[in-house]
Amino acid sequence: MPGDAVVLVRRMGDEDLEEVGKMYADFYSYHRRIMGSDVTYPPEWGVEELRSVQGEVLVAELDSQLVGFARVKEDEGAYFLKEIYVKPEFRGKGVGRALLRACEEVAGGRLYASVIPANLPALDFFLREGYSFFNTIELTRAEGDVETVILGRVLEAVTPAGFNIGDLTYEVLDGEYCVSICGEVPQDFLAVVKEPEGMTVISREGCGEEADCGYRIIKFGNLPLELVGLMAVVSNSLASEGVSLLAISSYSSDFILVKERDLERALNALSRIPHLRRMR
């Protein structure tokens, strides 16, 4: 019986293209259907799409049959689950879980998935597997704006000592370090971020003339360009902590602007992003 067999997950090979193409077409036909469209995609469409997609495509075998697939793609340091599909007759046998765990191994740190709210089985699946909501966004597509829920799961434990950007280490310090920088602790002191070549005091004075005194700048020095591609991830992660992102810059003066009352939660949220990992 298929239910008695072990699910084998491996990378897709050329010999799998035709069968996975059928599942790929079924996946997108299903999504169009639950969005109220009668458009369906033929297997040939799925095969052609798979020839050009980016990322890593994994397939699941049960009793030597291809029964599901998933695709995970790295986007400048963040990993996104683009598709995951199991043939209807093989659902409830652990195939989806096996595919998801294999994708998490590829991701290593945090894996994100986007699901339209109408896809209740998918939402239930991710929540049961330990994923949590980050944000709800609207994606503009040819068929109109589509509401999409972003979910994610932390795959490694972190501690609140500080965080890394690329190979550079940053620390969040307490008010005692302000004395060596300012000679005193500012009355409106919030935190100090220790940079590789100095420190930045986060306080009312740190906002500069362009910012209202109700906002605070989290300055990182020279952020790597990778963060530009992660702006949506930054926004979603902050939103998961109830933080409103007012601005983000990644040019000569790199900063993230948030409301004063949100500073601590913002630092916590940012430290969980792959390119802003906290130190172990």
Structural overview:
With 280 residues, the protein is α+β, with helices and mostly antiparallel strands. The protein folds into 2 domains: 2-154, Gcn5-related N-acetyltransferase (GNAT) (Aminopeptidase); 162-276, 2-Layer Sandwich (VC0802-like). It has helices spanning 17-34, 43-52, 95-107, 120-128, 176-182, 231-240, 263-270; strands at 8-11, 56-62, 65-75, 78-86, 110-115, 132-141, 144-154, 162-165, 168-173, 191-195, 198-202, 215-221, 245-249, 254-259. A 7-stranded mixed beta sheet has the order 1-2-3-4-5-7-6, sandwiched between helices. Strands 8-9-10-11 form a 4-stranded antiparallel beta sheet, covered by helices on one side. A hairpin with a 2-residue loop joins strand 2 (56-62) and strand 3 (65-75). Helix 1 crosses helix 2 (43-52). The longest helix has 18 residues, at 17-34. The chain is globular and about 55 Å long. The relative contact order is 0.11.
Q: Span between N and C termini?
A: 45 Å
In the sheet with the most strands, the strands line up as: 1-2-3-4-5-7-6
Order of helices and strands: EHHEEEHEHEEEEHEEEHEEH
Q: Name the assembly state.
A: single chain
Question: How many E-type strands?
Answer: 14
Short structural description:
The protein has 7 helices and 14 strands. It has helices at residues 17-34, 43-52, 95-107, 120-128, 176-182, 231-240, 263-270, and strands at 8-11, 56-62, 65-75, 78-86, 110-115, 132-141, 144-154, 162-165, 168-173, 191-195, 198-202, 215-221, 245-249, 254-259. β10 and β11 (198-202) form a beta hairpin.
